[in-house]
Amino acid sequence: MSQRPQTSPKALTEVEDRFIAQWGEISALWGVNRTVGRIHALLYLSRQPLDMETITKRLQISHGNCSTSIRDLLAWNSIRRVHVPGERRVLYESEQDPWTWFHACIRERRRREVVPVVDAMHEITDHAKLSADAADAAGSPEAGDLHDAFERIARFAKFMDEFQDLIDAFLAVGAGPLGKALRTVAKFVPKAR
Amino acid sequence: MSQRPQTSPKALTEVEDRFIAQWGEISALWGVNRTVGRIHALLYLSRQPLDMETITKRLQISHGNCSTSIRDLLAWNSIRRVHVPGERRVLYESEQDPWTWFHACIRERRRREVVPVVDAMHEITDHAKLSADAADAAGSPEAGDLHDAFERIARFAKFMDEFQDLIDAFLAVGAGPLGKALRTVAKFVPKAR
DNA sequence: CGGTATTGTCAGTAAAGACTGACAAGTCAA
DNA sequence: TTGACTTGTCAGTCTTTACTGACAATACCG
């Protein structure tokens, strides 16, 4: 409980803190909890796997929060459990190649968010088509508007399909050598504007 | 003020509502306010530009909320103001091509979020390098750890640079014919897994 | 210009999301 | 198995974000 003086100004801690804070901001920006991002950053920087107590002390968070955040990171395949023989505590480590990590994130996001949304769009499109045709058959005055709505909805559904194709193409070339080559090419594409 | 009965069950309204709700969810998923997404969806579906009162009634939101959301949509270049001569009210309409809209979104996101973050990463990398070299010069025991941290941070900064190149390449091919051709190609890239 | 219809702003409030800490459940050495 | 240590869960609380509605500012008509 007593206030111990800092053992040293700790240049290392300061460097790490900046990076951790920044990664937290980036995460928040992309819809990921800030704390989740900070833990990930800490593990990415660490030379060896860390246990929960070390993480909670370093980032000043409760172990409940830490436990939940780690569950998230595991679900996103951003970190791995490490078991050390003769050690009760569970340790965690992060993937060290950012592109491999990013690739895993995109795959997960595709699975959770893109696929369900694409499916929902198809259902909505089908429903719109049925409504429009039914209005035709009934000679309803809405028929024209319904066909128009169907066309706009179908156009958006097609966009979503193509968007998913783009993601699939990215996942196919992946974090490996082909992906690396393409990213090198990207560097030399003449900029717009 | 009196309760008028619905004029009809309105198949059109139901079709629109489904699409609007879904777009709202998609928006929320990508860090955009749900209401902002719903207004955008409504304008995308509408055959003619709409004024604020129509939007507030249709989506059951306050005009304050609507005003703020429309400001956001304008800032994202997702909708346009339309002035009709001899009409006091301002009308709004949405871009009708989803890829053109998406392109504008990405450009804006790059400007607001990617560029500042890439810059911050460079600063952090420089700072880490300076600290590591200073520790070397001082013969500090932290020197090894600092060089290690610098390497990891630099690796991530490089990833961010490449990520930005990828976005720039996308923006360069754009929503035009070249982009369309590439999206067609994407469709036939063999899938991973 | 004065009057009115429309839009913008923002303080206060409501809703959603994140965090803590107490307790439960699980794990492992002895 | 027991007992100590570690991790998981979740009700309650705190923080952040979204929304409403009253008032202010603006634009346009006659």
Query: Termini of chain A, distance in Å?
Result: 59 Å
Structural class of chain A: mainly alpha
Uncertain runs of chain A are: 1-8
- Measured as a percent range, the helix fraction of chain A is 55-70%
> Largest interface, and how many residues on either side?
A-B, 63 and 63 residues
Approximate strand percentage of chain A = 5-15%
Largest sheet of chain A: 3 strands, antiparallel
- Mean pLDDT of chain A, to the nearest integer, reads 92
Q: How many structurally independent domains of chain A?
A: 2
Blueprint of the fold:
Two copies of one chain form a homodimer.
Chain A (H helix, E strand, L loop, with lengths): L10 H19 L4 H12 L4 E2 H8 L3 H13 L3 E5 L6 E5 L3 H40 L5 H31 L3 H11 L6
Antiparallel strand pairs in A: 1-3, 2-3
Helix pairs in contact in A: 1-2, 2-4, 5-6
The structure holds a DNA duplex (30 and 30 nucleotides).
Structure at a glance:
Chain A has 193 residues and is mainly alpha-helical. Chain A has helices at 11-29, 34-45, 52-59, 63-75, 98-137, 143-173, 177-187; strands spanning 50-51, 79-83, 90-94.
